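Notes taken during the Thursday session

The instructor put the following on the board and asked us to keep it in front of us for the whole hour. The protein is Mutator family transposase. We were told not to look anything up and to reason only from what is written here. First, the residues (404 in total):
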Amino acid sequence: MTISMEILDELLTGVKRPEDLLGDSGLLKELKIRLMERMLGAELSAHLGYEEGKAAPPGQSNRRNGSTTKVLKGQDGAFPVTVPRDRDSSFEPELIKKGQTRIDGIDDRIIGLYAAGLTVRDIQTHLLDLYGLKVSPDLISRVTDAVLDEVREWQGRALDRMYPIVIFDALRVKIRDADSRTVKNKAVYVALGVTREGVREVLGLWIAENEGAKFWLSVMNELKNRGIQDILIAVVDGLKGFPEAITAAFPEAMVQTCIVHLVRHSLNFCSWKDRKAVAADLRRIYGAATADMAAAELDAFEEKWAGKYASIAPAWRRAWAEVIPFFAFDPAIRKIIYTTNAIESLNRVIRKSIKTRGSFPTDDAATKLIYLAIRSFEKDGRNVREWFAARNQFAIMFGERFAA
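Then, after some discussion, the predicted structure tokens were revealed:
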């Protein structure tokens, strides 16, 4: 649509300063209001079947019935708009719906600020400083609470029949307990799947204060109820009762301890000056070509470091049953399992969102923010690098299970 120069010249008559065009009482704001009112009038005319100032169709009782003024909030601040009415209140405008008080994506901006980790008070201050909008904490809560409906739909969506890899990981978040009113450390568990096509997909998130075999089994059964029938490789970080819960729900799944977590756990026992040397020797274990060679490297590691860090080698031996499946894989698959770049990048996105919060008032408040972080994560590239080589290996190793 092109606006003629004559109309523009007429509109700009009397505009001599920037504020005459852009200010709170400037031309742009007034033009926006008038255009909205004009469109609302056109909507009512279409609804009633006759133009303003004309006679109503014979036999039609519904007529224009004056107007009402509502204050809308948008990027230009708050401004009044006159909305026409009809006698029987059957007019439902599309431009500004009944009950609507916000336009210009203000809800999206509130959610975006919340997703960035801003508190309700921070969001209030930001909207007031930037847009001159005074919004109540209750409004911000209502807008962000709408995200919970999206979370419930996302958490209950159908999943693929088979995932070659599912990585389970946990983060600790401080949440105020509703009963005791004390702040507790709760775990947020995230399941990140890799599809047959090599696409990363967050399958769900769960918040729990105490985890155990019963909790893990409920998570596995939820995934089954949502459509997963088979997991080829489940990568976990040594959580108690987790391998048993996985194999109870998915008997053929190969459970693999997350090598990254095992290495980090080992390095927690080391002094800073020894960490580099210990990490290099641990790399000889998980970098071995076969399980037998890895066991020999573990023996050598224990012989070298047992006197100084006696607890590291036993930790690897306790987890050895879930470590050795790693050595049956081709380097293409090992790289995906070991590096866990996908889950690490997801965790960085989540931690960036929650780091400004001392604690969350409820589980729902934490869920909203973490879900928004996940949504942001999934907007970026979701394809696993070098998946083609890994896919061929999966097809050979797992045959019909991968093809099903």
